[in-house]
UniProtKB/TrEMBL annotation:
Protein name: Diguanylate cyclase domain-containing protein
GGDEF domain sequence ranges: 254-390
Enzyme kind, highest EC tier: transferase
Upper classification of the organism: Bacteria, Bacillati, Bacillota, Bacilli, Bacillales
Signal sequence coordinates: none
Keywords: Membrane, Nucleotidyltransferase, Transferase, Transmembrane, Transmembrane helix
EC number(s) per entry: 2.7.7.65
SUPFAM superfamilies, per database record: Nucleotide cyclase
Gene3D superfamilies reported for this sequence: 3.30.70.270
CDD domains in the cross-refs: GGDEF (cd01949)
GO MF, one annotated term: diguanylate cyclase activity
Length: 398
């Protein structure tokens, strides 16, 4: 059955949809720190609302306004909206920014030239559809292929991909059917176009808000889980993740190793060079050891700050021999490094304990055993690795 939708009703719904989004974003921004992504999305919705408002009064105002200006604003709105998505995901580099600016200018100039030459509406539809779809390609590619993408992000990428594909199909239909696919030509294509436009508006508005909320939640989780100074896990999160890992290892009847270490003579560094230098020492050490741990284990470790200059590493599926070798590699990583930024060299001492993983192992017990080994390393002259006797450790855990 053929059905037709009233053109002005659809355009009015698009205008109010974008205006309501602008109002909601304005209310939200009053209580948050403004950022480039929100600003770009806010401006995109405002510009799109104006563009659709101009189309409502087509025929009552000059075509330069209802066709050329309206489509110019739609190009700019599409660029700002996709740019907001890329800024939100922190991939909108200067090179991409220049490409988007150049692409926008080409689209606007080309469309204006086509109109000035009096070319058919179908040609304008092809040009506008293909031009707009090009701006979606990179956001779609990034959101779909990003290995760390959430389900929501990947789904948004797929949906935006469908939007880009539908724009290309509309361009193809315009080549075949001419003006029949125009927004102002009544018929089946007009109705489907209106439905598509409305769904695209819902997708853009709702999707961006959900992605923003997801990113904000992830940032809050990161703040709550990581040590601000060094970027490693804080004590609470380290203990939670370590307990979970030990339970998994216990089911496999595997080994687990715990390494506790700190900076040798750290109090002297603070007293002599100041706490600012002391903080930089911890940051430098954490960065170097994270990189070395990743090289040695392939990210199969849990690394956290216990407090002060005291750090801990949990190594799954690692026996005493492997843990001792890895600890020695970490010691050498720090001892053999000469920093041109820090005014003082520093070393670390490490205590190691390895035991069979058991569900009832208390993390505090592993800490105490490795702390005892660390004390022995300090007593042996610092810049040392000491391993707690595994037989004694197993006896204490029974």
């Amino acid at each position: 059955m053929m059905f037709n939708l009233d053109m002005k009703t659809i355009f009015i719904s698009l205008v109010f949809g974008h205006i309501f989004t602008v109002i909601l974003i304005s209310a939200y921004r009053k209580h948050t720190v403004q950022n480039r992504s929100f600003n770009a999305f806010f401006l995109a919705k405002l510009i799109q609302a104006i563009a659709w408002a101009l189309l409502i009064v087509r025929g009552a105002i000059p075509e330069l306004l209802s066709i050329v200006l309206a489509n110019t604003l739609l190009f700019v709105g599409a660029v700002l909206e996709t740019g907001a998505l890329l800024i939100l995901q922190k991939v909108f580099c200067e090179k991409l920014k220049r490409l988007y600016i150049i692409g926008t200018l080409l689209c606007i100039t080309g469309f204006t030239t086509i109109y000035a030459l009096g070319v058919s509406e179908a040609t304008r539809i092809v040009y506008a559809s293909v031009g707009t779809s090009l701006f979606l390609f990179y956001p779609v590619y990034y959101m779909v292929t990003d290995r760390n993408a959430s389900t929501l992000k990947r789904l948004m990428g797929i949906l935006y991909g469908i939007v880009a594909l539908s724009l290309l199909l509309r361009a193809g239909a315009a080549l075949q059917l001419g003006n029949q696919v125009g927004l102002f030509t009544q018929g089946m294509y007009q109705s489907f176009s209106f439905i598509a436009l409305y769904m695209i508006m819902i997708l853009g508005n709702t999707g961006y808000v959900l992605l923003s909320k997801e990113q904000a939640d992830a940032e809050l989780l990161h703040i709550a889980s990581y040590d601000e100074m060094t970027g490693v896990l804080n004590r609470r999160t380290f203990m939670v993740e370590s307990r979970n890992m030990i339970h998994q290892l216990a089911m496999r009847q595997s080994q687990v190793s715990f390494i506790l270490f700190d900076v040798d003579s750290y109090k002297m560094i603070n007293d002599t060079y100041g706490h600012f230098t002391g903080d930089r020492v911890l940051q430098d050490m954490a960065d170097r050891l994270k990189q070395r741990l990743t090289e040695l284990t392939g990210e199969h470790y849990i690394f956290g700050r216990y407090g002060g200059d005291e750090f801990a590493i949990l190594l799954p599926d690692t026996d005493e021999v492997k843990a001792g070798r890895l600890a020695e590699q970490l010691r050498l990583t720090v001892a053999h490094h000469e920093s041109h930024v820090l005014p003082v060299p520093y070393t670390i001492s490490l205590g190691v304990v390895s035991v069979p993983a058991q569900r009832n192992i208390q993390l505090n017990t592993l800490y105490e055993l490795s702390d005892h080994a660390l004390y022995n390393a300090k007593r042996a002259g610092k810049n040392q690795v000491a391993i707690y006797n595994q037989e004694q450790a197993e006896a204490m855990l029974k």
